[in-house]
Amino acid sequence: MFGIIDNIKKFYFTRGSIHPKQNKRTAPIMVFPGPNPEKVTIPLLQHTGATCEPLVEVGDRVLVGQKIGDSEAYVSAPVHSSVSGEVSGIINYPHPTGRDVLSIQIVSDGMNELSPDIKPPGDPFEMTPEEIRRAIREAGIVGLGGAAFPTHVKLAPPPEKPISTLIINGAECEPYLTADHRLMIERSEDIIRGALIIKRVLGAEGVIIAIEGNKRDAIQRMREAGQNEGIHVVALPTRYPMGAEKTLIRTLTGREVPSGGLPSDVGVVVNNVGTAAAICEFFKKGMPLVERIVTVCGDGVAGNANLRVKIGTLVKDIIDFCGGYVGKKGKLILGGPMMGLAQYTDTIPVIKGTSGILVLRYENLFVKEPAHFTCIRCGRCVRHCPMNLMPFAIGMYADVGIWDKLEQYNVNDCIECGCCAYVCPTKNPLVQLMKVGKEGLARRKKKIEELEKAVSGE
Ligand code: SF4
Ligand code: SF4
Question: DSSP string covering 228-262, please?
Answer without folding.
Answer: TTT-EEEEEPS-BTTTSHHHHHHHHH---PPTT--
